Amino acid sequence: MYKVILENELINIMRKKEAATTTAVSRPLLPPKSLSSAHPLSLPFKLRATRRAAPGPLRLSSTTAASRPVSATISVGDKLPEATLSHFDSAGELQTTTVSDLTKGKKSILFAVPGAFTPTCSQKHLPGFVEKSSELKAKGVDTIACISVNDAFVMRAWKENLEINDEVLLLSDGNGEFTKAIGCELDLSDKPVGLGVRSRRYALLAEDGVVKVLNLEEGGAFTFSGAEDMLKVL
After folding, report:
1. How far apart are the first and last CA of the chain?
2. What is the dihedral of CA 170, 143, 120, 179, to 10 degrees?
3. DSSP3 helix / strand / coil % (the chain, rounded to 5)
4. What is the domain-level CATH number for residue 205?
5. What is the pLDDT of residues 68-78, one digit of tens each?
6. Per the structure, how many domains does the chain have?
7. Does 182 map to a domain?
8. 174 domain residue, yes or no
9. In a domain, 45, yes or no
10. 193 falls in which pLDDT band (50, 70, 90)?
11. For residue 2, is pLDDT > 70?
């Protein structure tokens, strides 16, 4: 009797398995739910990438510059403070020079940029002085130097990139020693590019180390610190 009951149970189990298998096979597979053409994931990767907003122009000005007058601790008639700057010479050797070396007994133009390789500095400010270097020297200028709060390696790479020879001396104020001494710091720490503390843009004319002309821009603006502006005051 128990054998008959066991056989019936086994038969029922086998019938249930057959029914489940038949249902699974006969049930049609539903196609995956398609994404709407408006859905961002339905677009090709390249097209989705172009949906991102294009970055705006790089504006090198501090967030607080507009709220205070453009000024520096140095002014016309002052003696330039001493500081040590560095650069690579034509032989690839790292050299140092001082403000006194650049200006003592000379008529010198020192101009500063917020950063090597930045757009305005690379496309307008520095190239302008390179282009006008002969005219400036014809008017008695002995030294033309570009100063930036960048290390000497970056300044050398920038010089090579712009194919500059000896028209303009590119100087590294890596720790901002000279920039701080004349009160021309520009804090760009809060910008997306993270430039930190750099130099305001300016151009100055010094005779025997004394400032005769100081064209100090607001932040990184470029309005009256170019080579043409310095030619006008010589």
Report:
1. 124
2. 70
3. 35, 20, 45
4. 3.40.30.10
5. 445 689 999 99
6. 1
7. yes
8. yes
9. no
10. confident
11. no
Residue-wise pLDDT for 123-166, tens only, equals 999 999 999 999 999 999 999 999 999 999 999 999 999 999 99
Look up the domain containing 221 and give its range: 70-233
d(CA 83, CA 106): 17
Amino acid at 198: R
- pLDDT higher than 80, residue 27: no
Q: Residue 144, SS3? A: strand
For this structure, is 146 an active site residue?
A: no
pLDDT of 112 above 80: yes
Task: Give me the helices (H) in 27-161, please.
Answer: 45-50, 99-103, 119-120, 126-131, 133-138, 152-161
Q: Which of 85, 99, 109, 121 is catalytic?
A: 121
Alpha carbons 213 and 211: distance in angstroms, whole number: 6
The pLDDT score that the predictor gives to residue 190 is 82
207 sits in which H/E element = strand 202-207
Is 175 within a domain? yes
pLDDT of residue 3: 46
CA–CA gap between residue 114 and residue 130 (Å, rounded) = 18
